[in-house]
Amino acid sequence: MKLPEESVVHGSPAPASPPPAAQPQNLPALDRLLRLPACAALLDAHGHTLVANEARALLATLRAQALAGDLALGQIGADALAGALAERLQRRLQPAMRAVLNLTGTVIHTNLGRALLPQAALAHIQAMMASPNNLEYDLASGSRGDRDSIVEGLLCELTGAEAATVVNNNAAAVLLTLAALAPGKEVIVSRGELVEIGGAFRIPDIMGRAGAKLVEVGTTNRTHAKDYAEAITARTALLMKVHCSNYAVTGFTKSVPEAEVAQIAHAHGLPLVTDLGSGTLVDLSQWGLPHEPTVRDVVAAGADVVTFSGDKLLGGPQAGLIVGRKDLIAKIKKNPLKRALRVGKLTLAALEPVLRLYLAPEHLPARLTTLRLFTRPQADIRALAEPLLAPLQAAVGAAYAVRTAPLFSQIGSGALPVDTLPSYGLAIAPTTPKRTGRALAALEAALRSLPRPVIGHIASDALWLDLRCLEAPDLPAFTAQLPALADALRQK
What we know:
The protein has 21 helices and 15 strands. By secondary structure, it is an alpha/beta fold. Strand 11 and strand 12 (415-430) form a beta hairpin. Helix 3 (48-67) crosses helix 4 (78-93), helix 6 packs parallel to helix 14 (345-357) and helix 7 crosses helix 12.
């Protein structure tokens, strides 16, 4: 038996020789790579064009590694090459939009797609997208129809408005309304209602793009009825109210309610337009949630046009909904911008079944996904958190300590910003006080790298997983990837 070679100086075994390096000429040609038996299944599944393109890119990468002396012969065996090609194809075909687990504690999270659609909407979307449909075809008369008619009747019934139309989001709804009703004329708005939503939607900017002139009245914290009345001139097109849904001003404040502003507007023959933003169709307080004015309330108060979102409190798809007086809605629909901002069949296929759910409000908490998430009892969420404690601790290892904790969720997307929902979840904190930030960043990245990414939030030297939006059907997907979380952390 051959003894291991020994160091002359220390008498210890000599270090193992590095694996032989591969040279560029050791790499197979493209056609030879594609003829490997292990690549046959890839060609059958994905076609020659895609597989050949990815194989070409793989060989270019390996060639660069070989030239740099960083490629071992073991990396270019038949099985290794086929495996590397399969991994490239998997990455190439992974959709950019992916399902994630929203454990941030924000239910309607703008960055995570806002409202989740109920099952009724998902089923209707599938049916309508798989078949021709009557998007702009009147089945009764056999003539061309108006796509707004799909939801207009429902919107009028649910809001008390005379007419309705739909565009792609609420910013578009406000833009179109102002462009149609106030081009080149003045619009009076309280200074305390000049809101900014999401960094790009600012009432003054939208008004300018619509060709209207902003007239600010009142002060930041107090506006009186006389401020509106005294600002009206022959150049005034309308008065506008903006619901401050994403912030609250407290203390020495005053605002004028819709009914009073409507009276002032109508006394001068002017309309009142209200941007309700995250508008709801039902009084949320009946389910123990904070009160938010409904669209019907605002219409009944005298608002002539009301704009609001479809994917916030309403719980539907992204859309800007415009309801109000028939003559004003007709004028809005005739504006050329309407065609540029209109919604497609996908949005209407999702919106109609969501609106129909509101015809039976008694069943809304069970059937409307967003409302179900809002109303989950804290005790139910806690019952979900405690069984996850041990497996999550095992996955993150001794470098982190996991504990359950009561939390407070928020509604999100600018709706009811100061109100919270009692919730429950898990807190993961590094066990070593040094480099806490780095350890939390590594954990956050590992959670985001999972097959179904888990999105939490970092605060108070811990990563928090609020389980309000983790329901029982999602639990297997969460636990099944905990071994992958352990692997990801070991690689950090």
